[in-house]
Design brief:
Distance between the termini of chain A: 19 Å
Number of strands of chain B: 8
Number of helices of chain B: 11
Bound molecules: guanosine-5'-diphosphate, magnesium ion
Strand content of chain A: 5-15%
CATH topology of the largest domain in chain A: Rossmann fold
Strand content of chain B: 5-15%
Distance between the termini of chain B: 15 Å
Helix content of chain A: 55-70%
Order of helices and strands of chain A: HHHHHEHEHEHEHEHEHEEHHHHHHHHHH
CATH superfamily of the largest domain in chain A: P-loop containing nucleotide triphosphate hydrolases
Number of helices of chain A: 21
Radius of gyration of chain B: 21 Å
Strand order of the largest sheet of chain B: 3-2-4-1-5-6-7-8
CATH class of the largest domain in chain A: Alpha Beta
Structural class of chain B: alpha/beta
Strand order of the largest sheet of chain A: 3-2-4-1-5-6-7-8
Largest sheet of chain B: 8 strands, mixed
Number of strands of chain A: 8
Structural class of chain A: alpha/beta
Radius of gyration of chain A: 25 Å
Shape of chain B: elongated
CATH architecture of the largest domain in chain A: 3-Layer(aba) Sandwich
Oligomer: heterodimer
């Protein structure tokens, strides 16, 4: 989703990279581009203004301009400031000792609270927790039925006493039930409301007082525009938000709302929802997001995603190959097989460094037939061809096309793509090698043995 | 309450803010800002503030720039506010809905991304039609979201409209066909189709909409007669991408701008009208049955800029 923002930022950086000696004017040109990129990504006007001022303050000084690598320094300043804006807090829920731990989900109408409630319950189950969910949305027709149906599908226990129609009573009932039945976390879904609706905001305040939640999660649509700071700001002012969930991140919104909300609320983005399946919720990693925005890809997320479907050994092997630049057509085929099991391709592509642009060009789901076709082409290659793509000449291409029921153009395209992919992976591999040497002084990323730091 | 009053009531909060800022903007200059014979009389400072206001209304950088260019070149000596107002109004009025032609019942598809207010809009459109003496059939073609059919059924009951439901998980196009057949058999005027929310980037879901469109076209001459894209007023620049994608795959004939009762201004709809020529048809100003009003460019712009009330 951040593909086009990162493209714009790359354009801005190109301006400063062209200069051997950076002038304040060149920085100003770059800042103008960055400003446009952020505004077009829906970052709030005031947030952008403050951001640009801070970057300018830091960039236009002699130490930076006269350094040997001024362009890199400007990029680093932008990255730093983006990180600061997004916050560095731990993703996920607060580490509360409260049992049952009480979590309130709040937000505007249509933000995605109900789906998020069940996704979060699902995620907690994966963490070894025992969640109970309850809806307090007595206003929207069939809102309770919606939560019940989703929870049923996800195998999550619901509290829904038909006679209880008061918001606070339903929530308290759920906490009571959880206590007696041994559920250790209660997720309370609330009706969507406008931040300026005084009565309904008051209702939330009463709910908060009654159940004393450890987590108040503000659920926000990633496609939100300039209004994001007003609504989030007001929810925060009246209730005190502890975390933010950004939903609908699987679309093509440039996600400026993430920056706006984080900067106005001053609390971390805890989770992102990125699909319609109940498993499509991930803890948020600001560092990774910043890398994605700056077009550096996110190998760590990719590996984690892969871990869900492949064994740890396979993942480590892949990572070693990427780092060692030994990626072969056979590996590509194995990966495609895995990818087929991992879900929508375009989203994965975004995670691979340099593939972000390709992903946006693919716009939407990749034709699953194309995936099958690609695998068929590789299947028609000899072992030698798969590990040494350089040997695949014209006559071999014709043979492979015939064998796989495709055309020579298809084979050409695949080889070209593969070479391109190798080239990209080489840069990442090199980057992670050099960073390794420098040691692991990185904020916010849990470095695990065998995992690439990128 | 007349629709005008309701629109105004819904827009009041929005307007108070916008107008409040415009007044500050006017007061900020040493004199009232005038666009005189010389363009130079519009100070950069003021144009900057104008840019801020437009961008914060989600009109977008490029549409804002175009508007500012238009203002800069005005040579009459009206004040800045009325020039902008006139320009906005001209732009919104330039897009007019195409006349509805074809057989009966008229088929209206309601489409959009998740959570924008499609189902609520269908219920309220049924209400508007009923009030004007037409008899609608409500068709629940959201076979995806949990309890979506039940939600719409509540609205259908409230309005007292015919309701054709899908069995969960079935092909939405089949339900649309059923609803049109029912509409024909009972001699109804309009079939309102609620569809599942879908992100415009999901190509397979977008082609599902195209299938609905084709099935409707085969069932009634000229169907779908209207396709309304429901946009949430809080949406940012992504609204334009949504409009483009839906326009391309099902052909959008109008926009319904919901949630204008909040603090968001829905400015991206202005950019959509400017860029794609799709008119805004209705605005949503609350969650109740009567909180949907036909859009009027004059009223919208007046309501945005008139401090009188
Ligand atoms: N404040 C406000 N809320 C609205 C408006 N239109 C719809 N909603 C609310 O937005 C939420 C989502 O609406 P729904 O019709 O279910 O959206 P759908 O997913 O597009 O069908 C519901 O809580 C509606 O009550 C509006 O004009 N103003
Ligand atoms: Mg709906």
């Amino acid at each position: 989703m951040f593909a086009s923002l990162s493209e714009r930022l790359q354009t801005a950086f190109a301006v400063v990279r062209r200069e051997t000696r950076l002038t304040p004017e060149a920085v100003e040109t770059a800042l103008r581009e960055i400003r446009l990129a952020l505004l077009e990504a829906d970052v709030n006007f005031k947030v952008v203004k403050a951001f640009i001022d801070r970057v300018r303050d830091r960039a236009v000084n002699r130490a930076v301009l006269e350094s040997l690598t001024p362009a890199q320094q400007v990029v680093a300043i932008v990255r730093d400031e983006l990180r600061t804006l997004l916050g560095d807090g731990p993703a996920g829920l607060t580490a509360s000792r409260q049992r049952p731990q009480v979590v309130l989900l709040l937000g505007l109408q249509g933000a995605g609270k109900t789906t998020t409630t069940v996704k979060l319950a699902r995620w907690l189950t994966g963490q070894g927790r025992h969640p109970l969910v309850v809806s307090t949305d007595m206003r929207r027709p069939a809102a309770i039925e919606q939560l019940n149906a989703l929870a049923h599908e996800a195998g999550i226990r619901v509290h829904d006493p038909a006679r209880d129609t008061a918001v606070v009573a339903r929530a308290e009932g759920a906490v009571e039930l959880a206590r007696s039945m041994g559920f250790d976390v209660v997720l309370i879904d609330t009706a969507g409301r406008l931040h300026i609706d005084d009565d309904l905001m008051g209702e939330l305040e009463a709910l908060k007082t009654a159940v004393q939640p450890s987590d108040l999660l503000y659920v926000a649509d990633a496609m939100t525009g300039q209004d994001a700071i007003k609504s989030a700001g007001e929810f925060n002012r009246r209730l005190g938000i502890s975390g933010v969930v950004l939903t609908k991140m699987d679309g093509d919104a440039r996600g400026g709302a993430a920056l706006s909300v984080a900067s106005v609320v001053g609390v971390p983005i805890s989770f992102v929802g990125d699909g319609e399946r109940l498993d499509d919720l991930q803890p948020f990693h600001p560092d990774r997001l910043v890398s994605r925005m700056l077009g550096m890809g996110d190998v760590l997320s990719l590996v984690e995603k892969a871990e869900q479907v492949v064994s740890r050994e396979d993942a480590t092997r892949l990572e070693r190959k990427i780092r060692g630049n030994d990626f072969t057509l056979q590996d590509m085929r194995d990966q495609l097989e895995t990818v087929k099991r991992m879900g929508p391709l375009d989203r994965l592509a975004e995670l691979i460094p340099g593939m972000g642009q390709m992903a946006s060009r693919m716009s939407g789901e990749v034709d699953p037939h194309a995936l099958v076709r690609t695998m068929a082409i590789i299947d028609s290659m000899t072992r030698r061809e798969r590990v040494r793509y350089q040997v695949i000449d014209g006559s071999r291409r014709r043979r492979i096309a015939r064998g796989s029921g495709t055309t020579v153009q298809d084979v050409n395209r695949l080889v070209k793509q593969f070479v391109e992919m190798r080239r990209m992976l080489k840069t990442v591999g090199a980057a992670s090698r050099s960073r390794k040497k420098k040691g692991r002084r990185r904020r916010g990323i849990p470095t695990r043995p065998g995992m690439p730091v990128a | 309450m007349s629709f005008l009053e309701r629109l105004r009531a819904g827009l009041r909060r929005t307007t108070d803010q916008l107008v409040g800022r415009f007044d500050r903007l006017d007061a900020g200059g040493a004199t009232r800002v005038t666009v005189g014979q010389a363009t130079a009389t519009v100070s950069i400072d003021t144009l900057d503030s104008l840019e801020e206001i437009l961008i914060e209304a989600d009109i977008g950088v490029s549409a804002a720039m175009r508007l500012i260019e238009a203002v800069r070149d005005q040579t009459d000596d009206a004040d800045l506010r009325s020039v902008v107002k006139r320009e906005l109004r001209r732009l919104l009025e330039a897009a007019t809905p195409a006349p509805v032609r074809g057989g009966r019942p008229r088929v209206v598809l309601v489409v959009g991304v998740n959570g924008t207010g499609k189902t609520t809009t269908v219920g309220r459109l049924a209400r508007l039609l009923t009030l004007s003496g037409e008899r609608p059939v409500i068709c629940a073609a959201d076979t995806f979201r949990a309890a979506a059919v039940e939600q719409l059924e509540v609205w259908a009951t409230r309005v007292g409209a015919d309701f054709v439901r899908a069995r969960p998980g079935t092909d939405p196009a089949a339900v649309v066909f059923d609803a049109i057949s029912a509409g024909k058999a009972r001699g109804r005027d309009v079939v309102l189709v609620d569809t599942a929310g879908r992100l415009h980037t999901r190509t397979n879901l977008m082609s599902e909409l195209d299938k609905i469109r084709r099935v409707a076209a085969r069932a009634v001459d000229g169907a779908p007669h209207e396709t309304l894209l429901v946009l949430d007023a809080t949406v940012g620049q992504n609204g334009l991408a949504q409009a483009r994608a839906f326009l391309e795959s099902v052909g959008v004939t109008g926009i319904v701008l919901t949630k204008l009762d909040g603090t968001a201004k829905g400015g991206i709809a202005v950019a959509i009208t400017a860029e794609l020529g799709v008119p805004i048809r209705y605005v949503g100003v609350g969650e109740q049955l009567d909180d949907l009003v036909p859009f009027s460019a004059a009223e919208y712009v007046e309501a945005l800029f008139e401090p009188a009330w």
